[in-house]
Design a protein that fits this description.
The protein is of the alpha+beta class and 184 residues long. The chain has one domain: Aminopeptidase (3-Layer(aba) Sandwich). Helices cover 28% and strands 35% of the residues. An 8-stranded mixed β-sheet has the order 1-2-3-4-5-6-8-7. The radius of gyration is 16 Å and the shape is globular. The mean pLDDT is 96.
């Protein structure tokens, strides 16, 4: 995988060395409001990034593609992006943008750049994201990118003492191309 670039961002394939750079921003509890995780320990994050650098699921059947987004000309991380690509099926994606970069367009910029790359470089019919129904920021983001809500999963998860429902948003390759052409 190669670096991706947008107007303000450099998006690097995840490397083991990135763990040290993103650990501190990942400690912000606001990130975990709609996620069933807690901030990682330094050791846990390092082990995860060591593994993710390989780009494959443990059984080898899926590509696990992960990136860290940086301000274009610096080593300041703004967030992460991940995509799970099962062979010949729809791919899933997720992202985390660090709170100090919220509401500045970075999530949209990173997501649009990586989705475009995924459709250009990989053979998959569509991409989808599962989003907690309470996460209005992520819902607005994917809708602004042209993804369509295709399903709701009631009781998708239970964490932090509450049940979580999820929306599933999707976009197919052809629709993404049309949306990108319309934006030009």
């Amino acid at each position: 995988m190669t670096n991706l670039f947008s107007d303000r961002l450099r998006i690097e394939p995840i490397r083991s060395a990135h763990a040290e750079l993103v650990w501190s921003p990942l400690q912000n509890p606001a990130i975990y409001t709609y996620l069933p995780d807690d901030p990682p320990t330094t050791d846990a994050l390092q082990m995860r990034y060591d593994f993710l650098e390989g780009g494959r699921s443990p059984d080898g059947k899926e590509q696990w593609l992960n990136w860290v987004g940086f301000l274009r000309d610096s080593m300041t991380p703004i967030g992460t992006f991940q995509a799970t690509l099962p062979k010949g099926k729809s791919a899933a994606f997720a992202y985390v943008v660090f709170p100090s970069f919220w509401r500045q367009g970075y999530a949209r910029e990173m997501t649009a750049c990586v989705i475009s790359h995924l459709f250009e470089a990989h053979d998959m019919p569509s991409l989808f994201a599962e989003i907690d129904t309470r996460n209005s920021g992520s819902i607005r983001l994917v809708e602004s990118l042209g993804l369509t809500r295709i399903a709701t999963t009631q009781g998708a998860d239970f964490f932090k003492g509450a049940s979580s429902d999820e929306y599933i948003y999707s976009v197919c390759r052809e629709d993404w191309r049309e949306l990108q052409d319309a934006d030009r």
